[in-house]
Amino acid sequence: MASRSQQGLDAAELAAVLGDFTRSSIRLPATEKHSFTTLSVLHTLAHKGPMRMTTLKASEQVTQPAITQLVSRLEREGLVERRPDPEDGRAVLVGVTPAGAQIVRTRHEDRIRRFSQLLEALTPEERRDIGAALPALARMAALMDTER
């Protein structure tokens, strides 16, 4: 593994900081109270559109029985719906409903409010550093998405 002096960044430190940040971010107070897996499925469907159960299972990294049970529960709650796949009448697509999309929007708005408060506690230099890092972090996220 390359050191900080060779890359300008320590991968272990990056992993630790992003892990801490992710755990804290997931646990931010929210208006909508749902499990991480529920929020992840709703977010995936809201941003990527309807998908087959097998694709959703792979995206969420859960077992087939787990995704089937979760989608059934979310369907009963009116947060997702199943519909025939127009490309294959035997297959079913799962899509987010307006109620499910509203949960995603509310969660996002809650995070913006909380991040705004946290940003106020930082120095101008810290805010500038985070802003400068955003394009690289977005690129890393895109690279992680293509690896799945």
Can you describe this structure?
- The protein is mainly alpha-helical and 148 residues long.
- It is 68% helix and 11% strand.
- The protein has 7 helices and 3 strands.
- The chain has a 3-stranded antiparallel beta sheet.
- α3 packs across α6 (98-120) and α4 (53-60) packs across α5.
- The two termini are 23 Å apart.
Give a short synopsis of this structure.
This protein has 148 residues and is mainly α. It is 68% helix and 11% strand.
Q: Give the total of beta strands.
A: 3
Low-confidence stretches: 1-5
Principal-axis shape: globular
Distance between the termini: 23 Å
Gyration radius (Cα, Å) is 19 Å
Strand/helix succession? HHHEHHEEHH
* Secondary structure category: mainly alpha
The percent range for helix content is 55-70%
Question: What are the key terms here?
Answer:
148 residues; mainly alpha; 3-stranded antiparallel β-sheet; 3 strands; 11% strand
List the helices and strands and how they pair.
Elements: H1 4-7, H2 11-26, H3 36-48, E1 51-52, H4 53-60, H5 64-76, E2 80-85, E3 88-96, H6 98-120, H7 124-147
Antiparallel strand pairs: 1-3, 2-3
Helix pairs in contact: 3-6, 4-5
